[in-house]
């Protein structure tokens, strides 16, 4: 009797464990900001993203980093998973604060995934401005992760803003003040088709097409584009519809990391 | 009594779970092609590989992608895991169809592994030709993944063809029509020794030696070579024998992803 | 009654499994060197690192690898996880043996982590010298992994030597014979703050600042510096204190891979 019981429990448990282990190994997405007493610490967010400030960067380091001399204070904002979401969030931050995005660097990361991580530096004359920019960006990241879809085979990303500001300009050379769209498909094979879908869906102006040889060797194809606000949205929605079908066909159900916003 | 039972079951289960978790986290290898209704969808294959076609690439995108104007139709073939296997399969596809390989891009990928992913574009005048090329490549991939050996510490890859065609020429600058061999060892330290083993084992002509600074920052050493058919095979077999011993010493048993063909 | 028991066991087990799965997926760190009969095999070490020798490198490969002609024998030392630790260990090896470090290549690796792997080649006139260098490096690696701290969100690394030798010079252009310090923070956002902390903590001379755009697209910020022995240590200790707080805030407890030595 007891052996049967052991067997029964064993089966139940193994079934449950198998289910758990079969889940796509998505990057860590929800993050409880732990207590950190450092004055430089601002907070953390989805995608193993952290926000920090330095009130007065050491002058030698400042020079080695190639920063503009007029900013002694910097905000630091970057994560393991995501480049587009962090850039879009930084764009909202520069709109809302007296700061400038002085550097955007895109490592090959996503914790074993197919894409980028990010390192974004805000320059400010006052540390309070730098801190405010990082706060805004950290907070907005939950929104900009909304049209990121992930499964074990890859990811899709769609970003939209009605009015691009200076972070988007710096990252993609996009015209300031215009509607801007960004789409990413990984693996890159999927991305190529999404780019074609987007340009055919609406009258948009392609700013750049990126693929593994022009990204940080990510397995992504990327389209950055501007245009009329309605057209940009239409292109994104068309590409998203196709992308979800393709990525699902390859790796099973894929879902938004937070809440879709487009 | 019941506490003893709980303890007993707990021990059994933890043992089983530990075994499961100790298994090398190999990339996803078997793939059920799910239903996808898009006309552009051709199929999926091992290594999170997908095949797609575009009948008539948008002209602006066509230009941004740097494609030859004579091909309006393209086949898209690429995956998260593997570059050599996809290139070899694409080579069979160009032999069998009226297409050309117009682009090969190699992201740093393999889903947390040490190697490349791939993005290969076939150009064709007719979409039916592009589709046929992608079909052939998808189907052949199971074969070309045969001499890929993986464990938790790295991977080995050996590829052979009696007659290289235009995909191999484009990827490795190999002479068309001659026997061609490719070997990959990861981590790169293992690969260096395999390269030496291969060149000493038979009279081959080295086309190129690649290492982390000349790949997409992969942790691989790679040798591409041509020569007499027997010599190329002999070099590969010698390197494979050494490679399996080294990779096993580092990470335990490693086995073929499908069925060895060399 | 038995169903209650099943439920109870199930709960216990799932709790235990959840704990196990919540552990940061650190790279494989302890490694039992398996028997390998190849004469070229020297041994394995932490970080999926392997050591090999070639008594007489094939002359064609030798040339393709760009090695100095005076060394026919090479030692090969490299791993999936770690660049700094392997370089520091190689530095001890060149101090202790009649060899030279002839190549250092740094893939983007760490098995899904944020950093580098490594491929280091020792040149020697005698194979016994090459073997000895690899043995010393393999053995020392356990020490140099001591101030590497890892959790699921990233890693930190601190390296110190009272007297840099030729491996460190080759890797970082550091002055031979002087105290040398190296710090790495991943994600790169954390690294930026650690660099600032270090330069403010003591009178050191910055040799180089590296970030994702100047590494192999790793998600790291890196500072290499020299100076007075006490100052170098002080800078490292200050950065380590800050780094542990930040990385913990982002990803929970992080601990040394072996035993801290600084």
From TrEMBL, chains A, B, C:
Annotated SUPFAM superfamilies: CcmK-like
Listed GO CC annotations: bacterial microcompartment
Keyword Repeat: no
PROSITE patterns: BMC_CP
Cited InterPro entries: BMC_CP, BMC_dom, CcmK-like_sf, EutL_PduB, PduB
Compartment list: Bacterial microcompartment
Sequence ranges assigned to domain BMC circularly permuted in this UniProt record: 36-152
MF term (GO), any: structural molecule activity
SMART domains, sorted: BMC (SM00877)
Record keywords: Bacterial microcompartment
This protein's record includes keyword Calcium: no
Main location: other
Record's protein name: Microcompartments protein
Source organism: Thermincola ferriacetica
């Amino acid at each position: 009797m007891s052996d049967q019981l052991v067997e029964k429990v064993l089966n139940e448990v193994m079934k449950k464990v198998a289910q758990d282990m079969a889940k796509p190994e998505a990057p860590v997405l929800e993050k409880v900001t732990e207590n950190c007493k450092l004055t430089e610490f601002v907070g953390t967010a989805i995608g193993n993203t952290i926000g920090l400030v330095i009130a007065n960067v050491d002058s030698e380091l400042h020079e080695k980093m190639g920063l503009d001399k007029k900013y002694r204070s910097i905000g630091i904002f970057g994560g393991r998973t995501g480049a587009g979401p962090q850039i879009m969030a930084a764009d909202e931050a520069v709109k809302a604060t007296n700061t400038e995005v002085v550097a955007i660097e895109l490592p090959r990361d996503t914790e074993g995934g197919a894409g980028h991580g990010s390192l974004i530096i805000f320059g400010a004359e006052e540390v309070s401005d730098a801190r405010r920019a990082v706060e805004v960006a950290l907070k907005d990241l939950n929104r900009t992760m909304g049209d990121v879809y992930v499964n074990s085979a890859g990811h899709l990303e769609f970003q939209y803003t009605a009015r691009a500001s200076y972070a988007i300009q710096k990252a993609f050379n996009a015209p300031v003040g215009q509607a801007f769209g960004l789409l990413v498909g990984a693996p890159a094979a999927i991305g190529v088709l999404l780019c074609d879908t987007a340009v055919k869906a609406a009258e948009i102006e392609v700013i750049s097409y990126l693929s593994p040889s022009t990204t940080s060797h990510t397995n992504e194809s990327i389209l950055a584009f501007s245009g009329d606000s309605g057209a940009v949205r239409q292109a994104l929605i068309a590409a998203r519809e196709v992308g979800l079908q393709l990525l699902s066909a390859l790796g099973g159900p894929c879902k938004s990391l937070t809440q879709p916003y487009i």
